[in-house]
Amino acid sequence: MPRTIHIGTRGSRLALWQANWVKTALESGNRSLSAELVVIKTTGDKILDTPLAKVGGKGLFVKEIEAALLDGRIDVAVHSMKDMPAVIPEGLCIGAVPERETPVDVLISKNGRQLAELETGARVGTGSLRRAAQLKHVRPDIVIVPLRGNLDTRLRKLETEHLDAIVLAAAGIKRLGFEDRISEYLTESVMLPAVGQGALCIETRENDSGTRDCVGALDHEKTRVTVMGERAFLNRLEGSCQVPVAGFGRCDGNGYVLEGLVASIEGDTVIRDSLSGHMSESEKIGVALAHRLLGRGAKKILDLLKENADEG
Prior knowledge:
Layout: E1 3-9, H1 13-29, E2 33-39, H2 43-46, H3 52-55, H4 63-70, E3 76-80, E4 92-96, E5 105-109, E6 123-125, H5 129-138, E7 143-145, H6 151-160, E8 165-169, H7 170-175, E9 184-186, E10 200-205, H8 209-216, H9 221-237, E11 245-252, E12 255-263, E13 270-278, H10 282-311
Parallel strand pairs: 1-2, 1-3, 6-7, 6-8
Antiparallel strand pairs: 3-10, 4-10, 5-8, 5-9, 11-12, 12-13
Helix pairs in contact: 9-10
């Protein structure tokens, strides 16, 4: 008999694009299956006037959706991988990681200027501590302006908040067809991406083997390997939205290279390194790289940030 799979998603335009992509992919791969979207509002969607770093750690955009998955209201959850906490609730698992979209960040400016061309004192909007720290590291003369909201809202605020530029993920811009707005693709040497950026996470219940089999067809091995190495790195650092941490892996043949970064809030201190090995050991490489950065001073930065967050 035909089966209906209920897909949980946030209600933003980008989240709906992602969920509909999964819906189409599942239905095209199995003619006896149909999929329906279930829109769920998350804590991160409800709190729009406070920087994410002050709201709490990871999970702001996934907890309510995971709760619906656990209690059976939905069968599949679709998230942006960069929103996923390093630790997944008991009973849930990552059923598939589809092929990754462009993982880098982009600069969108009013006049098409690139980062190096922005005037001293230029106002650049971002809600990410990771982006802000790296921007301040290369351009300490610019002013970082907190920026929240979905992608459409942030693009609109470029005009309404009197900003000179904003920084966003290339993946979302490309998925929604706004590539013509891009002023510059920021290279990894300038702006190392967030862990999992550009990748989707299709989450299922561990004991739901039927659904896991269905979504498993969407898994892209090299993307999964790459992202799992990045997530192992983040997990060892206990990274969250309150910490400027970046991690970006690449698979080349059977090899795996992971680059990681921990920065101070103001970007005056950036600890960065890379580690490579066989792709089958991406998670071990992630943990080893985290240990290397911790030994080089990242622990002091993280401890200070945690202490300040606790006091706040």
